[in-house]
Amino acid sequence: MLEKLLLDGAQFDFMLEIFARTILMFLLILIVLRLSGRRGVRQLTLFEVAIILGLGSAAGDPMFQEDLPVIYGVIVLFSVIVFYKLITWLASRSDRLTRLLEGSAMVIVEEGMFDIEGNRNADFSQNEFFAELRNQSIEHLGQVRLALLEVDGSMSILKYDEANTRYGLPLFPNAHKAIDPRTAEPPYACMFCGNIASTLAATEQSCSRCHKDEWAKAINTKYIG
């Protein structure tokens, strides 16, 4: 059963040819990526991901299709890289085309609070933003002056200096939990947007920024990098 599944109709000569084709196409992909000036994978934009997928598709078929000459794959690979170079050249001269292909950076945190509109439009959950900030040793939003989600998915962060650190929403699970404001001293932080309520009376209604009604105990520890 297993032998029939794996080897039925297989030709040893063609298996060797597949091996050779695969090595050749893999080397060609490496050469094409090198010619493209490829950056790290984390820095890929959507346009560049599409190019990589196109390269993979073009290289895949000639690897094992006996009736498809390798030269066809070579032509496709180099056609893709010429198109890529042309588009990047045009994008370097047009901000509109750059934004169309790559998008633009998005404000996530500003002045110690989540940007409500930015978070609503982002394709990331709040927990993913928390994780990114924690990876930068950010303990609470009061340490962050500005955080941008870059077009490649990375996050750029400007922090307050020690003297200007303010109260903010905790980001680590041991402190990021809903409380009854009546059982803790102010200030309090809205668990959705990070807005700070400095008095108990301010928590008796929903948050003035996002209209949510869950509060956490705000903290103002200094950043330790």
Description:
This protein starts with a helix and ends in an 8-residue tail after the last strand. Helices cover 43% and strands 12% of the residues. It is elongated. It contains 7 helices and 7 strands, in the order αααααββααβββββ. The strands form 2 sheets. A 4-stranded antiparallel β-sheet has the order 2-1-3-4. A 3-stranded antiparallel β-sheet has the order 6-5-7, with no helix packed on it. The protein has 2 domains: 11-100, no CATH class; 106-217, CRO Repressor (2-Layer Sandwich), CATH 3.30.240. The chain is α+β, with helices and mostly antiparallel strands.
How do the helices and strands line up, and which of them pair or pack?
Elements: H1 2-7, H2 12-36, H3 46-64, H4 70-91, H5 95-102, E1 106-110, E2 113-114, H6 116-121, H7 126-135, E3 144-149, E4 155-159, E5 188-190, E6 196-197, E7 215-217
Antiparallel strand pairs: 1-2, 1-3, 3-4, 5-6, 5-7
Helix pairs in contact: 2-3, 2-4, 3-4
Give the structural class: alpha+beta
Please state the average pLDDT score.
79
The largest pleated sheet is described as: 4 strands, antiparallel
Biggest sheet strand order reads 2-1-3-4
| CATH-defined topology of the largest domain | CRO Repressor
| N-to-C order of helices and strands | HHHHHEEHHEEEEE
Give keywords.
225 residues, alpha+beta, CRO Repressor, 3-stranded antiparallel sheet, 7 helices, 43% helix
